[in-house]
Design brief:
The protein is mainly alpha-helical and 314 residues long. 83% of the residues lie in helices and 0% in strands. The longest helix is centred in the last third of the chain and has 38 residues.
């Protein structure tokens, strides 16, 4: 998760368009797929040991305070000086970090998770087929009509359906030992072959539709390979860098909520004052500092609230 977050940070700015950083600039967005795959696995783990009520309480406790804290921070800075941040579209929705498409989608995935969990436990092959059909309908009909304008309700639905397969794929991986036996394995393979046939038909009809369907699907199916690659890489790199990756993963949500704001504000304000590489390093360092400080403050607030509630109960 730390490696995924770092690659996303490099893909979300304009200074890494030259070698060797252009690799992250062009392909770093694949880190989102790793995030969603791991999130799907995490949902299964949480639902397996908690009730639905506790599951939602944990999701709310993790997401809402961070989104509100960093959203209010960005909104407050924008009220002081909005001269250089107009491209970020800071508004009242930004107070809850709803100016970020990922937050919309992850909330929808969280709401769907208990239903998907039960559905996949009982009908894994039908669940796989349903998700794939929804995915293709999204790319065949919604995307050509509305595109990926996540600021509209239909656009949010398009983004969410487009990334849903990789999230459900993560849930499948976590559930695999419990739900798959020989007959179901054949049925799941049949569902996958059906999906491939849909892709081939799309290619025969129109090339752009084939690209819009085939590439995201390959990305979703290749995500476990990317995760395994990250694990192998972490086992081979120096211990210090490994600890840095673990630290990055521990504040990944906070980094996601703040890093684009920091990078774009620095880029628009100080582009002529620093060379590109120095500006990139300053933006990344400041993002880490703000993410860590923000999470530390939130943790202390939550601990104090929990302690006060325990005393009141006693």
């Amino acid at each position: 998760m730390g490696l995924a977050m770092f690659s996303i940070m490099l893909s979300h700015q304009e200074f890494s368009s030259f070698p060797p950083f252009n690799f992250f600039h062009n392909y770093g967005h694949w880190g989102v797929e790793i995030f969603l795959f791991l999130s799907g696995m995490g949902m299964v783990r949480s639902l397996a040991k908690n009730s639905v009520r506790i599951f939602f309480y944990h999701r709310l406790q993790r997401l809402f305070p961070a989104c509100l804290f960093f959203g209010l921070f960005k909104w407050s800075i924008f009220q002081v000086d909005d001269s250089c941040l107009s491209e970020l579209h800071i508004n009242l929705w930004s107070c809850f970090s709803l100016d970020l498409w990922f937050i919309h989608s992850i909330i929808i995935y969280y709401v769907m998770s208990p239903l998907l969990y039960r559905f996949l436990m009982k009908y894994p092959e039908l669940g796989a087929l349903t998700v794939l059909i929804a995915y293709f309908l999204s790319h065949f009909f919604l995307t050509p009509i509305v595109g990926y304008n996540w600021r509209s309700p239909i656009g949010v639905l398009t983004w969410t359906l487009g990334r849903l397969p990789v999230f459900v794929f993560g849930m499948f991986f976590a559930l695999f030992p419990k739900i798959i036996y020989k007959q179901r394995l054949y049925m799941c393979l049949g569902a996958f072959i059906f999906a491939v046939l849909l892709v081939i038909i799309a290619k025969m009809i129109e090339l752009p539709l084939w690209i819009s369907c085939f590439l995201p699907l390959c990305t979703a199916l290749g995500t476990p390979v990317m995760v395994i690659g990250c694990i192998i890489l972490l086992s081979r790199i120096p211990v210090l860098f490994r600890h840095f990756c673990f630290f990055t993963g521990s504040i990944s949500l906070e980094l996601y909520l703040i890093h684009e704001f920091v990078i774009w504000s620095l880029y628009l304000k100080a582009y002529n004052l620093y060379n590109n590489m120095l500006l990139l390093l300053v933006a990344i360092l400041l993002s880490f500092v703000l993410a860590y400080v923000g999470k530390t403050i939130l943790n202390r607030i939550l601990v104090s609230i929990t302690s006060s509630n325990d005393k009141n109960v006693r």
